[in-house]
Amino acid sequence: MRRSRFFTAAAVVVVALSAGLAVASRSDRAEAAVVWNEDFNGAAGAGVDTSKWSFDVGGGGWGNQELEYYTSGTSNVAMDGQGHLVITARKGSGGHNDCWNGTCQFTSGRIQTAGKFTQQYGHIEARIQVPNGSGLWPAFWMLGGGNWPTDGEIDIMEVVGRDPNRLYGTLHGPGYSGGNGYGANIVAGSPWYAAFHNYAVDWSQNQIVWTVDGQEYFRATPASLQAAKGNVTWVYNHPFFIILNLAVGGNFGQGNPAGLPAESKMLIDYVHVSTSNSTPPPTGNALKSNLSGRCIDIPGANPVDGARLQTYDCNGTAAQQWTANSDGTMRAMGKCMDPAGGALTNGTPIQLVTCNGNPVQRFTLSAAGDLVNVSANRCVDVKDRNTANGAQLQLWDCTGGSNQKWTRA
Fold first, then answer.
1. Catalytic annotation on 125?
2. Helical segments of 276-319, H only
């Protein structure tokens, strides 16, 4: 959100939204884990709690040649009395003639928690209904400080009105900012403005996972970032503050702002920040399937190139001892886990091959138990949910199923 860009995604995920993304009213994490929350339960017309939020004010384009003037007070940011904060973008200058392009064309709102609340790691979630309209650009995001992009930016939710079925999640940092940001987008079967949705990230020291309504659509690690962007720096190990805003136009928003109605409204039900409730993963070199309790195995303990990996009774032999190497590879018996033929599509078999430095050989095991191929952003999957010895492994879209969950043992 911070600077001008035409977005380059690392991945595109397509979902049938109308076919069943569950819409929850809040995170299912225990309330005891919540470290900061804002539920916007004020009276209609009331302003935000200024002990938690500050206003960004002005019409300088905000690095993106945006068309709005951000105001303070309740003229563009106020409660609706029904448990929502409403950020309203209005046509007209609002009396402001000092925008970057002359007389301002719109007023809107942008609030943030800098100097009042920051967080390092955890679950950061907001329940939001974005507005409908080509030219609108609502966002829920975080900044690591005032030195952009060195301090980092985590875009949790961006939807541009000209493409209302597409949701973006992105990182910006030194060497991968603006149009070169690192992220993904998810395409739904119906527009995001049609309902409230829960937009969130789960952020830990070496991983950020983006979800919408509890469904993961992208994850980033230092290894996956460098695989995509080269020798760049992971800058997400310090506190960040939260931002909510509704921009109009701009180099990314684009669209047809002239065709917008007199008022466009972004509704925020809540913003919650909680610490992680997850426990550290067990240690060990075997990778045990949550589906069958069997381990990833090199057949016959024969490390020949092209050996198709399988699950087999855990036995502690070298054929089942997988170490995560500093280059991002997963190794056993001196060779690397590898997608056959370097393919990254669903159904690609997982094999053993001589380590060759190809980025497609990079795998990461998340705290949630997903063994993810970094280049494909797909999970190692037990084919056909086979629980028998000799079950084959493949790449597949990460679903959260037990046939894709692995535990160190």
1. no
2. none
